[in-house]
């Protein structure tokens, strides 16, 4: 026997170990991923498995009878074992499991039994390559939830998995992403007033699943959707979100749904007056609200002096109103931001919808551009026939009157690959109004925007917004007695903006938004031209203004702990007012008047006349409480560089915009708010209470007898003031059931105080006085009731304190004329405003997939005919032909003094 | 049915909105001093009227302030005493002088009121007084609600004024008096009419003001309109058979100060604020009277110190291409605002002494 040398012995041992290890190569490797090679032609499966056993040391356990006649033809080239098994068993009623990382157990599939979750109607779905069955432990399922008939995306739909008790909601485009364990799972897809859909899903790997939902056979009115929004900050408060469905459910004048009148039903938002589309947020002026239409601002939100909103409700997807906690990406206005998103067109089918009313009608057409359905369009329009109706009368008063408007809106959406989405929006409107007077008002909006969203990756998304908005107003003054005094008065504003924002999602806890915005404004404050060739009117024009604003912003939305979330942001804004222009200098130490002008300075084109800048911190915090509610607090500072010059409390087309300059400083608002919110998802009831305090600087006030039109030195008729506002807002809401609705109550005060150094410019002796928008009590109640499958009833009641007014208190005679002495400014108050509206809707058909859907809406605005006061004024009695002291009196004007019935037919196909 | 529907819908526009008298509860105030002081270099325009304010709802006659001591004080000079010639009405013994500064002092029991000092302006002048033709198209509602247009032919009465450093502000009070006659039997028209009559027009709720903004060129204010008179007798005569004989224009011109101009501008703004759908900022009228003994006590009204002159013209208007006659009058008799003189039966009426033809 030969003795082995040491080297030879080591070699032998090494070889044995290697052989042993090679026989069990997967002890440290996942058996699933073991790569298999082989080529087979009609190979009996049993033999195939045996060859794998021998080659790879894997053991297979099964009953012979299960594989009795099974054969396989195919080639494996470095394929993972799990894939190989799926291919071998594809089409057979067998499945497999891995055991102890070295064995495979093959057994027959178990038939699906109805789970306690699954409904009678359940759909089956397989997501992923079946060949990868069992390969992954978890997978991301993403897709879209759409309205089944129209294809419209459903925002806020819930995708819920009962096995893991987790769920997500869709974003504004109906899209969702949910992370789930692989295997056989169940999903419930639900959305208010739509029938739930149930799916049994074999989730194999990451994949896409789109779902369609159909309306229930009867409608339950939907309320404010406060679902999670992918864009909303986790710590967001003071925000109202409303879908177009909610807007259309509320009864309004002449059956025309009105976005802004609907918002006024929410706490903290008040109407300026009857038939006025302007609104006040937390005591702020109407010009302190930034209203965006797909990112482009709107400068006049009314048609026909406030009868209708300029925003077509059929074109609206949803609207978000920030009363506080305004994200750093927004600025420009100190009171609120109303972000209106217009709908995308139907990406499945061509659709037509509209409504026919007593005074106006509307039509919307939408659909895909191409069969591939990667691009869509939507175009809508409204017009009124009130002008034609007036001219049918033989009465000269009505024949000479004009009351007409139209608006056209359109959107076009393009999917440029999987990662780019482009949306283009256009809007144009025109109004003409003259009710038997010498003054014809013409005004219109031209608005456009482009939004380009780019998904660089799952963690980096950018959005480019380009916006343009133009508002023009012309007043034609026609005095037939003195035609040479007829004139045209024009004013307007143009706005352009470029905004680029990047959202970063470094991990699940943080969402960082950052960006830059550049804004340009061109203002024509007034231009008067004679209307006749022979005229006593001298052509005159106020200096046009041009200005630019640049802003940098960044915020981080993050969870500090499971209970505590923050949004910390900062916005830096820089404003310049530049030439060409001229600025008057005034005598020091005396109030500015036309008589105290000492000289003027002329600025060339592009020269900086005045610049302002400032930092705007934004902070929000949310703390989740045990009861499912949350406590939130926020702080914000905002600058506003443009104000509307208006000597009326309500929006008038004759109002014009003015930018900050040497004498008019930017408005500054510091606001703090805190509140308790109890609004868990799928809850029946919701409740919130919120309190706020605002400190305001550099507010514009008007001197006694201020002349605002065509004033070449407007600064001589303006004075500055400071102010503060505070309030508490309560909201209680029932979201589900046959009867649903909400109640909101707001107690709020807002005060001003002149801060001029000159006593003669002081208002009310320099004391604080109520702002013209100070209305302490505001209450709204909305109720929707489903009578049966076809009939639904809606009602709302509103109450608010009257607006402050200034009234004559004393009188005396001077040179045979009665002269009055007015009270302190805003000392008195108009009578309270209250009103009830009702509406009844009949749906023509309820068949889910019926092409034509029509409904009739019967409504009564102001059910009990309350003569709510619109304005109060002092006037000589028109019956008097000579001076008589008793012929002067105080009057009040009510715009709507009777119940106003209306009937509207809405259709969609 | 269609027509009824149209009118039903249009009716909505008329009855949906309404304006009504509104009597809110107001604080009970009143009793503040009101000073209506019109002092000029003309003895006939020399008056201080003192009264009290009343609560807005109080329709009782105004309360006169009697027994006050009213003095016109020249800065660095003498004081001119005022005497009460009617309850609440005071006049001065002598007249102020152009170029001098004066203030008004009022003592009522223990309260002392003074005005801000005002410089008496120089005498006002009219550079040119003339008329120009004007044609306008008027639209009005005729019978059956139809609308009718007609061409209204009229005459503007204009003035040219000088503007100097010493005097740039003016105010005008204008009365136009139309002379008419009437014949009971025009077919048998004789040498005399049946009746001489006249009627006056005056816009009391608007002050005709001139200031630097009206400058046409340096040193001159050209073609400032005083009033407009129609050629057509329908607009002024009460009966078609009346014969318009002419117009007498009473033009009172005041050379005034910037403060007075601003004050009357405020009055015009307040009078013009007719109230509308959009309630504008009210115009509070600020006077120039202060209470020295109690600064918190308010006083209203104005101490208006102006230079003054009156001019009169006689005007005959005939439709073009007829003759336009404009003749200055140099006698200023007192003429009532309105009147009629009939003769006794068979006898001619007595023509007024001031009658111009």
Question: Could you describe the 3D structure shown?
Answer:
The complex is a heterodimer of chains A (909) and B (357). By secondary structure, chain A is mainly beta. Chain A has seven helices and 57 strands. In chain A, the strands form 13 sheets. Chain A has a 22-stranded antiparallel β-barrel. In chain A, a hairpin with a 6-residue loop joins strand 25 (360-368) and strand 26. The longest helix of chain A has 18 residues, at 6-23. Residues 13-27, 111-121, 217-231 and 881-886 of chain A have low confidence and may be disordered. Chain B is 8% helix and 45% strand. In chain B, strands 2, 3, 5, 6, 7, 8, 9, 10, 18 and 19 form a ten-stranded mixed sheet that branches. In chain B, strands 13, 14, 15, 17, 20, 21 and 22 form a seven-stranded antiparallel sheet that branches. Chain B has a three-stranded antiparallel sheet with strand order 11-12-16, with no helix packed on it. Chain B is globular, with a radius of gyration of 25 Å. Chain B is mainly β and 357 residues long. Chain B has two helices and 22 strands. Chain B has helices at residues 2-16, 258-272, and strands at residues 18-21, 33-39, 46-52, 54-55, 69-74, 79-86, 89-92, 101-108, 111-115, 118-119, 128-141, 147-162, 169-182, 195-201, 208-210, 220-230, 243-256, 289-291, 299-305, 307-316, 325-329, 339-342. Mean pLDDT of chain B is 84; it is low at 1-11. Chains A and B meet through helix 6, helix 7, strand 50, strand 51 and strand 55 of A and helix 1, strand 1, strand 2, strand 4 and strand 11 of B. Strand 56 of chain A pairs antiparallel with strand 1 (18-21) of chain B.
